Amino acid sequence: MQDSTEGKAKVVQQMFSEIAPRYDFLNRVLSAGVDRVWRLAAVKAALEIRPARILDLATGTGDIALLLKKVAPEVEVIGGDFALPMLELARQKAQRAGLAISFVEADALQLPFPDDHFDAVTIAFGFRNFADYKKALAELYRVLAPGGRLCILEFPPPPRGGLGALYRFYFTRILPLIGGLISGNASAYRYLPDSVERFPDPPTLATMMALAGFNTRYQLFTGGITALHIGDKPAPAKPTPAVRTGEFYPDEPS
Ligand SMILES: C[S@@+](CC[C@H](N)C(=O)[O-])C[C@H]1O[C@@H](n2cnc3c(N)ncnc32)[C@H](O)[C@@H]1O
Fold first, then answer.
1. What is the distance between the alpha carbons of residues 39 and 35, in angstroms, rounded to a whole number?
2. How far, in Å, is the centroid of ligand 1 from the Cα of 253?
3. Ligand 1 atom, smallest distance to 106 CA
4. Range of 187's domain?
5. Structural domain includes residue 244
6. I want to staple 153 with a disulfide (CB 3.0 to 4.6 A). Which of 30, 42, 107, 170 is the partner?
């Protein structure tokens, strides 16, 4: 079990390191630019709770981290990923844009941060790749402060019906072809539709998040092609103020 988790993680890490140089370009081409709209929705959901410190996990080339910092310059933004070539590109992009963001090497299954450290965590198209969802959710819960928010943007399995069939055709036939040609790594773009088919559907992911302790809800975009799951870590109940009654002060004159 341990070996297969580590094996999957290594394959994923190597795959993203290899496609890093072409990743941004392919994202724009393969999603026809719609990914920007989905990303903005995730960023808005994270900023809604007015966080002071945000982790963008599986940050890749840093698109979400950069967007967070552009929309809310006062927020401390940290981008984390375990593929170093992706992180290097993210650093260069932030530098070119003049945005102060820290990018750190971080494995989602063993986050290098203390408990209760972040007010919000965003993960765009990264969660699906984690080798152990339950372990990752436990780690995310640990590093979020009480009252903190987790936002997961992902590709759920294609919806049923006409749009789903069309999308499945695009995803399994066209996308691996274009992705393979441009990135030079055909297997990475075959992995994408396979991993999407295997990913839990939105109600199942919501249940997994709830079991990890989050108050959870989700929203679908573009006919169900993407889903944004929001999980809030419950804040502790405020202590009830002590009530002063005659019973506790028997000597006081009534
Ligand atoms: C599809 S890319 C998404 C990048 C970026 N968030 C975006 O929206 O474009 C997935 C990223 O997840 C990262 N990743 C996968 N498993 C990870 C793990 N266990 N810990 C940290 N990063 C991981 C990969 O290295 C890759 O950069």
1. 6
2. 68
3. 21
4. 2-232
5. no
6. 42
Length of the chain: 254
Distance 128 CA to ligand 1 centre (A): 9
Q: For residue 98, is it within any domain?
A: yes
Best residue among 16, 109, 143, 191 to mutate for probing ligand 1, ranked by most atoms within 8 Å of CB: 16
From atom 10 of ligand 1, which residue's Cα is the shortest distance away? 126
Using CA atoms, how far apart are residues 56 and 65, in angstroms rounded to an integer?
6
* Residue 228 forms part of a structural domain: yes
In the chain, where does DSSP find H-type helix? Answer: 2-31, 35-47, 63-71, 84-96, 133-143, 161-169, 175-183, 186-198, 202-211
Predicted confidence pLDDT, tens digits, the chain (254 residues): 445 788 888 888 988 888 787 777 777 766 777 888 999 999 999 999 999 999 999 999 999 999 999 999 999 999 999 999 999 999 999 999 999 999 999 999 999 999 999 999 999 999 999 999 999 999 999 999 999 999 999 999 987 777 778 888 887 888 788 878 877 887 887 888 888 889 999 999 999 999 999 999 999 998 888 999 999 999 988 777 766 555 544 454 44
As for how many domains the chain has, the answer is: 1
- The alpha carbon of 99 and the centre of ligand 1 are apart by a number of angstroms equal to 21
The answer to the question of residue 254 being in a domain is no
Which CATH number covers residue 192? 3.40.50.150
Q: Are strands 76-81 and 118-124 parallel, antiparallel or unpaired?
A: unpaired
Strand order in the sheet with 144-154: 102-105, 76-81, 53-57, 118-124, 144-154, 226-232, 215-221
